[in-house]
Amino acid sequence: MSPPVIWNREGEIAVITIDSPPVNALGHAVRAGLLECALAAAADEAVKAILITCAGRTFIAGADIREFGKPLVEPLLPDVINQIEALNKLVVAAIHGTALGGGFEVALGSHYRIAHATAKVGLPETRLGVFPGAGGTQRTPRLCGAEVALRIMGPGAPMAATQAVKHGLIDEMTEGDDIRSAGLAYCQKLIETKAPIRRSSEDTAHLGDAKNTSLFETLEAEFAQKFKGEVAPQQCVRSVREGLALPFAEAIANERKLFLELMDTPQREGLIHAFFSDRQVSKIPEAKIGQARPLNCIGVVGGGTMGAGIATACLLANIPVVTIERDQAALDAGRERIDAALVGAVKRGKMTQEHKDALMNRSWSGSTDYAALADVDLVIEAVFENMDVKKSVFAELDKYCKAGAILASNTSYLDVDEIAASISRPKDVLGLHFFSPAHVMKLLEVVVAKESANDVVATAFALAKKLRKVAVRAGVCDGFIGNRILGNYLKCAYYMVEDGVSPYQLDRAVKAFGYPMGPFEMGDLAGLDIGWATRKRKADTLDPRERTVAFIDKICEQGWFGQKTGKGFYAYEKGVRGGTERPEVLAIIEASRAEASITAKSYSDEEIVERYLSALINEAANVIEEGIALRPLDVDQTSLYGYGFPRWRGGPMKYADMVGLSKVVENIERYAKEDDYFWRAAPLLKKLVADHRNFDSLNQV
Questions:
Q1: pLDDT tens-digit profile of 517-549?
Q2: Is 573 assigned a catalytic role?
Q3: Which domains are delineated in the chain?
Q4: Of 77, 174, 446, 665, whose CA is between 20 and 30 Å from 323?
Q5: pTM over 0.90
Q6: Per annotation, catalytic residue among 125, 255, 286, 396
Q7: Cα separation of 239 and 138, whole Å?
Q8: Which is the catalytic residue, given 85, 105, 242, 381?
Q9: Is 581 a catalytic residue?
């Protein structure tokens, strides 16, 4: 087996080649090999310049994820980079593909950088709960200034090479196909012009930024608002601010100290879990067996908010779409919604006006006749959430769609097995539960019916990948994974409000935990009538032991459905972001409480969050045990991408593991003294505690 890093001399230039598929990650063997080759090349008297290049489709794409959570073995990356930078021969990094994290830090430690015009660079470590800890927080601001550096490192988003050149992070750009040849030519040019060795650690142009107190205060406030509760972006600001005021060696030592502090935080553990879950969630049994069917054209039945959003998502993925509506007026309205969404994409710079026009003129078509779906490969029904309405649509799809076409329902709650049983081809049926707005929200619940064919499920996951969505496999039950669990912790929220908590205090407490919105704000946004309809649908099935609350329905009876009516739990003014609290709502709650003979009591914010999350975790455990969710990580992904659970906490199952499952069970059993029907500890929770295991142990199966 050949080593992952080799070097050879081409004239006066030593070429170091990293070849460690698939992404040349900086594992121990690569770090050790890179340092060994760099020192050997520098010791060769015939060498005047050293070129660092990578084989395959990319430069060094970052750390080796297989080493995450394990003790690092020397040489450590900061030492490798420091020694490369200290060499007394020109060192040039030739970047193609992506140079991210430690990969870009290697490039920053080189004396010059050349990149292909299509390359991207970045320092995304804050997304994993740390910051660039191999000199990134020190070399970057010395090259481009503190503000630019922090706007790269804080959000962790990659930057195009064309932008990096403007900021002085890249010295030369090439559009040729062969980055190695371009790098050699650049090295030769540097040799011939007697270019000096430039160490970013010695660059003093931006050291004065250390005195710009207002800049750092502004960025701290901005990051606090944007990355609510996250520690790493703030530590990044601190490392830059303190480092620019120190000699470089001391700045690097300070960076390392702050980096190691972050390595020990629960946030890092949560974000690493989310990172790995992103990669595991698509590993489902059906995909190992079934081969995805072709997806050349997709049909969407319904041009309302959801149908238009689904059509837009498909068009943005360059998949042709046929929209079906009941009449021409509805079809025209649907087309306008799709067009408006694409106009928004143009305004955000996601596509050109020409591309948008081409999509609407050539990739989208509409009809009031189901026969227009004769050639589509998959059709998604997105009509009113009513079983009879959906069955009538599927009867038409069964009649007009070709053999082998996949028939999907965008239902949020309804029984997909019942829908499938109503037509002649149940094996071709599944649920595709998009979240609104469908062209923006990343979550897609793939609801697998009992007769869904393996290749149908595999195709749904392939579609999600094309749409750049996170697909989670869900079983059939009322609400599937997300909405079923949501229903339980919403009940808990309603109970707390009836018991004395203000809905506004509850929203604030949940947001302080890290959610972008509280449950009552979320209800206003989604439309309170949706939950009202669900409660009415399920009213006859309630167990007589189940506690019900009156205030939520009384608010709906006033016609207060949230943002769309201008009033819900909050009042909304046109053109004004957010809502204001409403005394009228508090009056309804107080009257409801009096009718139920409940004496109001107070809860601290900590108690509110503890109960709220206990209800979430408990129902999630039931969902896992019943097989509705494949693994705990599927619940985590659903909560992160569909319901706003703070990513830095990993997801509710990971959060429960970190809190301790015995503590969760203890809380639930304490609450059961007040209501032993709602608060029944899930059997899976109790079993895991008895076996001294956690949820993560179930992710390994």
A1: 999 999 999 899 988 988 888 888 888 999 999
A2: no
A3: 5-264 (3.90.226.10), 295-474 (3.40.50.720), 482-700 (1.10.1040.50)
A4: 446
A5: yes
A6: 125
A7: 8
A8: 105
A9: no
